[in-house]
Every structure is written in C-alpha cells, then in structure tokens.
TrEMBL record:
<dbReference type="InterPro" id="IPR036390">
    <property type="entry name" value="WH_DNA-bd_sf"/>
</dbReference>
<comment type="similarity">
    <text>Belongs to the LysR transcriptional regulatory family.</text>
</comment>
<dbReference type="InterPro" id="IPR000847">
    <property type="entry name" value="LysR_HTH_N"/>
</dbReference>
<keyword id="KW-0805">Transcription regulation</keyword>
<dbReference type="Pfam" id="PF00126">
    <property type="entry name" value="HTH_1"/>
</dbReference>
<keyword id="KW-0804">Transcription</keyword>
<feature type="domain" description="HTH lysR-type">
    <location>
        <begin position="2"/>
        <end position="59"/>
    </location>
</feature>
<dbReference type="InterPro" id="IPR005119">
    <property type="entry name" value="LysR_subst-bd"/>
</dbReference>
<keyword id="KW-0238">DNA-binding</keyword>
<dbReference type="InterPro" id="IPR036388">
    <property type="entry name" value="WH-like_DNA-bd_sf"/>
</dbReference>
<protein>
    <submittedName>
        <fullName>LysR family transcriptional regulator</fullName>
    </submittedName>
</protein>
<dbReference type="Pfam" id="PF03466">
    <property type="entry name" value="LysR_substrate"/>
</dbReference>
Length: 354
C-alpha cells in the first residue's frame, strides 16, 4: 500500500538533490529515508532516482511520480485546512471546480485569498484532472466550473469533442500567462541551448496535456529551427526540474519560473518570438447553478474575482502588496534574465494531469 510519507520524501529529495539533506529535512535517519525511497520505487515498479551523479537527479519515471506526489500531498493538507475552515464558518453550500494540475501551481494559491477577501469564507472544492475530463465533469454536472489555461484564440476548446465545447458566453477571463522557452546555463553562464543556433533538445509535454496543444499550434507559425526530442512529462514541474538539470529546452509558464529565472537556474533559450501567450479562463455549467454558485459567476464576469489584464502570477503578488517587475528582454550574448516575484507554493488539489 502506498504511504503518503514516501511521496513527501520524494518531494524533499527532488528539492534538495541529496539523500543526506532530504533525510535531515524529513527528520529521519539517512538509512531510514533511503529505505522509504526504495519502498516507493518498489511500489512504482520502476527506478525513480538516478543515484550515479552528484547532485542526484530523478529518472523520467521519478519526475512523473513527483508531479502526482506534489498534487496528492497538497490535496491532503488542503483538505484538512478547508474542513477546519468550513466547520468554523458554518457554511454548507459548496462550489465545485475542476482544473488542470498546473492551476494549483501558478494560480489558485494566489486566487483563493483574493476570493476570500471579496466573498468571505466560501467552501471551494477543486478536482484536478486533465482538460478533457474537466469538461466531461462539467457536462455531467459533477462540477460547477472549469478553470484552465488556454491559448488566446481559444483553439484549445476546438480540440475537445463537439459536445464538450463551451459556449463563448459561458467563459470569463481571469488572468494571463505565457509559455517561454527556458534552459539551464552552461559553464560560462550562457544559455546551454539556443533556439535557431544548432540542434536544440526539447523537453515536451505528453500528447494529452493541454499545454502541448497550445504549443503545437504556436510551433506551426515559427521559422524552421532544428529540434530533437529529449524527454517528456505530464507536468510543468517535472519539465522545469529536467530543464534545470540541463537536459534540454522546456516551454514553461512564466508564472511558475520567476524564482528560477531571477536566480539564473533557468534562462531564456529564445526571444519573445518563441513565446506562447495564454489566458486563464473560467467556464461555467450551462444549467442553472446553486444560488451561491450563480452569485460566484456574476462576480467572476464582473471582474471582482480576477484581473483579466494581468499575468496569472500577478494576482497573488498584488494581494500580498508586491509589485511584478519582470519584463521580457531580448537575448544577448550572455544569459540575461529579468527579476520577478517568487511563485507561490503549489495549490492543493486532487491529482490529475495537465
């Protein structure tokens, strides 16, 4: 049986890159920590850690498990906190939201406090799924809303089955984000890989990931560049860590990479012509909702629960009194990255794909 402590151990190991430091963080002996990681590998029936290098890195299977681990651990913590909050508030009506995993990393942690500041304690239950299952749940009435990232033209919705495609009148704009091509630095602090200069290994989202759909649409309009496949993952977090290890170029949301870019763990591999603009949208169920959910939708449409003109990550910094300072810069000879706010911790949701 899977032990949630093993998932917490894997997260600590990925963040520290060291069995010793991870064991210290988890307050266990190194031998006990190693046994728990081995137990997780036995459960997964695959090696999750490449122990040959220093610092160590996760295997491709390890990055896959890591993405789910972050969501599951966050879900359990969030569930406990929200049950406590709901019991204290005495409210019984629940607003149900389906969303891809990424929204927990780059959006909900900043957005939930904003909702609470406007509406007070409001029970929100978030289910994390792939995009198509999100809309299937909306169609069945299992949830009231879907919140997701989409390309600006809305081509993402055209990839859905006809019966699941939302009416434009049922969509509200909450914020903006952008996928930017990022890579690690080389020994001379220059981008390890540059788009358009030689062959660039690419770290891809898996085919059923909605960000892959938006990226594919954008690639059709770029000039010919020499790319080769270097690895895949379901989650942006997995690709981010792979890119930090120097495995290739990954198109990652600006909102979750501000700290990596300001601390030069990741730098641009190409100019703004390779960026993919995205929007954060809320989509409602067409049937009539509960009174609280209908009122919630009216606040969404009126812009009281979002800033449509702002980047997705900008929602939280504004609430915290911070100012966003990062601006796109063209690439020059050395790696130059603008500074920005640090991303918030991962939102806690039920595990699912992106």
């Amino acid at each position: 049986m899977l032990d949630i402590r093993w998932l917490e151990d894997l997260i600590a190991l990925a963040e520290t890159g060291s069995f010793t430091r991870a064991a210290d963080r988890r307050n266990v002996t190194q031998s006990g920590f190693s046994r728990r990681i081995q137990s997780l590998e036995q459960w997964a029936r695959a090696p999750l850690v490449d122990r040959a290098g220093t610092p160590l890195r996760l295997t491709n299977a390890g990055y896959e498990v890591l993405g789910v681990a972050q969501s599951v651990v966050g879900e359990v913590t969030h569930l406990r906190d929200r049950l406590t909050s709901h019991a204290a508030s005495g409210r019984s009506t629940t607003i149900r939201i389906a969303a891809p995993h990424l929204m927990g990393v780059n959006f909900f942690q900043g957005w939930f406090p904003q909702v609470e500041a406007v509406l007070g304690h409001l029970p929100l239950v978030v289910m994390s799924l792939n995009v198509q299952p999100c809309f299937a749940a909306l169609d069945r009435g299992d949830v009231d809303f879907v919140i997701c990232l989409a390309d600006q033209a809305g081509h993402l919705f055209e990839r859905l089955p006809q019966a699941l495609r939302p009416d434009p009148a049922a969509r509200a704009l909450l914020g903006r984000d952008v996928l930017i091509p990022l890579t690690a630095c080389d020994e001379e602090q220059r981008p390890r890989y540059r788009l358009g200069i030689g062959r660039a290994p690419v770290l891809d989202y898996l085919e059923d990931c909605s960000l892959n759909w938006s990226l594919d649409l954008a690639r059709a309009h770029w000039p010919d560049i020499d790319l080769c496949h270097a690895g895949s993952a379901h989650y942006s977090d997995g690709l981010r860590l792979m890119a930090r290890r120097g495995l290739g170029v990954a198109w990652l949301p600006e909102s979750i990479t501000a700290a990596d870019r300001s601390e030069r763990r990741l730098v641009r591999a190409g100019g703004p012509e390779f960026d993919v603009p995205l929007v954060v949208q809320a989509i409602r169920r067409q049937a009539r909702l509960s009174a609280d959910a209908e009122a919630f939708w009216r606040d969404l449409v009126a812009g009281r629960l979002g800033r449509p003109e702002a980047p997705a990550a900008g929602l939280a910094p504004r609430a915290a009194g911070l100012m966003r300072t990062d601006q796109p810069e063209p690439l020059t000879g050395a790696c130059s990255e603008a500074r920005g706010v640090r991303p918030l911790n991962s939102c806690q949701m039920r595990p699912g794909g992106l």
